[in-house]
Write a structure and sequence with these properties.
Layout: E1 3-10, E2 21-28, E3 36-37, E4 51-57, E5 65-73, E6 81-89, E7 95-104, E8 109-113, H1 126-142, E9 145-146, E10 155-156, H2 172-199, H3 205-218, H4 222-229
Antiparallel strand pairs: 1-4, 1-6, 2-3, 2-5, 5-8, 6-7, 9-10
Bound molecules: calcium ion (CA).
C-alpha cells in the first residue's frame, strides 16, 4: 500500500498554533487520497513553531501530487491556525513542497499548489489551471475597493481593522506593541507636563491651582496625596 509522509509546519508568531481538527487530502493527477485527520495519539499537534509529520496511506497510486487540501474543523472553540508550509514525501522518495504562509480561520478549507515557480500558461494539468482560476476569483472577492464618495480616491472595503482578512491584519505582537507604546507615550506626555510645571515659576495662585487640576486629570491618587505632603 503506497504511503506518503506529510510534514506540516506551524508559524512561530503568537497564537499561531491550534487545537482544532486538521484534515488533509492529497490531490493527484490520477486520483485523490481519502480525507485524513492529522492526529498523533497523546500528542498536542500543530503547536506554535512545531513541525509535525504524519503518514497518509492510499490504496492506489495517486499519480503526481498537484494540490493539497487542508480543512480545519472546530474542536472546542474556533482556534485560528497559521500554517507555514506542507511537504509531501512520495512513495518514490521525492519531496514536493506546498507553501502556505497564511491563517486558516473558522471552519474553512484551503487548497495549496506546489511551490515550483511557473507561469499560468505553463501549468500542465487541468487541476492546477482550475485552481489558479478559483484562487484568483477568491482573492478578487476578498481584496476589494469601495467608493466612499464620487471623485475621492477609492478606499479599502472595510469599516474597521478587524473586518480585514486575517492575513493582512497586524500580528498579535504588533497589536500589543501599539497598546504598550500608546500607554508609554501618554505616560511620558503627562509626566513631562508635570515636570515642566514644577520647573517653571508660579506667578499667582491661578498657576498653583492649574497644577492640581492637571494632576487630578491624569494620574489618579496623586491629586489627593500631593497637597497633603505640601
Ligand atoms: Ca494543538
Amino acid at each position: 500500500m503506497p504511503r506518503y509522509t506529510v510534514t506540516v509546519a506551524t508559524g512561530s508568531q503568537w497564537f499561531a498554533g491550534t487545537d482544532d481538527y486538521i484534515y488533509l487530502t492529497l490531490v493527484g493527477t490520477e486520483r485523490c487520497s481519502e480525507k485524513t485527520l492529522l492526529d498523533k495519539p497523546l500528542y498536542n499537534d500543530f503547536e506554535r513553531g512545531a513541525v509535525d509529520s504524519y503518514d497518509v496511506s492510499v490504496s492506489e497510486n495517486l499519480g503526481e501530487i498537484v494540490l493539497v487540501k487542508i480543512e480545519k474543523r472546530k474542536y472546542w472553540v474556533q482556534d485560528d491556525w497559521y500554517c507555514k508550509y506542507i511537504t509531501v514525501k512520495t512513495p518514490c522518495g521525492d519531496y514536493v513542497e506546498f507553501p502556505c504562509f497564511r491563517w486558516v480561520v473558522d471552519d474553512k478549507e484551503i487548497v495549496l499548489r506546489d511551490g515550483r515557480a511557473r507561469l499560468p500558461q505553463d501549468e500542465k494539468t487541468r487541476l492546477a489551471k482550475q485552481h489558479r482560476l478559483r484562487e484568483l476569483e477568491a482573492r478578487q472577492k476578498l481584496y476589494r475597493w469601495r467608493e466612499w464618495h464620487p471623485g475621492f480616491p477609492m478606499s479599502i472595503d472595510a469599516n474597521a481593522h478587524k473586518d480585514l482578512p486575517r492575513d493582512i491584519q497586524f500580528d498579535s505582537e504588533k497589536g500589543v506593541d501599539f497598546v504598550l507604546n500608546y500607554s508609554k507615550a501618554i505616560e511620558n506626555l503627562y509626566v513631562n507636563r508635570f515636570m515642566h510645571m514644577f520647573q517653571s515659576s508660579w506667578s499667582d495662585f491661578a498657576d498653583f491651582e492649574r497644577i492640581f487640576v492637571r494632576i487630578s486629570n491624569t494620574i489618579s491618587g496623586w491629586s489627593t496625596s500631593f497637597p497633603q505632603l505640601c
